[in-house]
Specification:
The chain is mostly helical and 309 residues long. The chain has 11 helices and no strands.
Length: 309
Amino acid sequence: MGFKGCYRAIPRKWKTPKIIIPCFVIELIVEIAALALYGIAQPDLYRTRLWKEGSDHGWNSNPNEIIYAYANYRPIKTPLPWSQFVTDFNVIISVLSIFILLCKGIMYICHIFHPLVSAFIHAALVALFAVSIHAQAASDMLDPDHPQPGAPWYITRSCGAPVRPSLRGYCQQAKASFAVTVLLCALFLLYLILSVYSLIPSRSSRSFRKYSSTESEVESGHQRPWEMAQVPPTPGTTGGLKSPMTPRTTAFNTLSGKMGGGAKGKGRGKGKGKAAEPLMRGPDGKLPLRHHISMGDETYQGTGEAVKN
């Protein structure tokens, strides 16, 4: 099977087309919410405050350790859940996902949003949002006295007491940001599963494809001898290249008196050369029209004799 055969074998129809449009609607709603939450958190609305609140309760490291390390020229790495990278990365992937959603909608309307294209797109989106989930739920082991081996406290703990009331709203926003990230990752994973499921050929499509390939091979096998067959010679050119005799050629030759070798009448053709026959006219005084190539001089011989008589 060549490249064209492999390309034709790729399914282009969704097995679950009724689920795609509701998924588009749900994705649009969740992505708008994610973009709003990520945009509010940028650049550092509550990240450092939540970090400081956790350190006050002994749940994670203290953000002042970063300042002390910089002051002492000591290399230090900011814990991933409290870094600026997470906030910027979330904004970037939210904008990118909305742009891809618009492209997917246009492609679906134009009937070119095939399962194979969807599989590649959503595999990349699943990877991006999986990285975001890992970054938001990463551990904080900067302070050995107050380690945080799991996700940050605003994900694993309640936003109520003992959290300060002024930070409870920010804590809920951070929880919502993590929730929409997980939801989008699950939605893109559903897209990926549906795409792979649609790419698996069914038993009926396999049998139909096998029948079509067999039929095309049989037709091509019947056509191959005709492709190399010898073209039949043009009528009138058998035995060498010469001008074919057509009714019009015969009529013009008759009018010009160049037709030789006519039918031998009584008392004619005893010399070496043969003189051209006189033009024979019909009863109405007009020349008869030779409307068929098979009509020879014998046909008009009778007409001429009838005029003479």
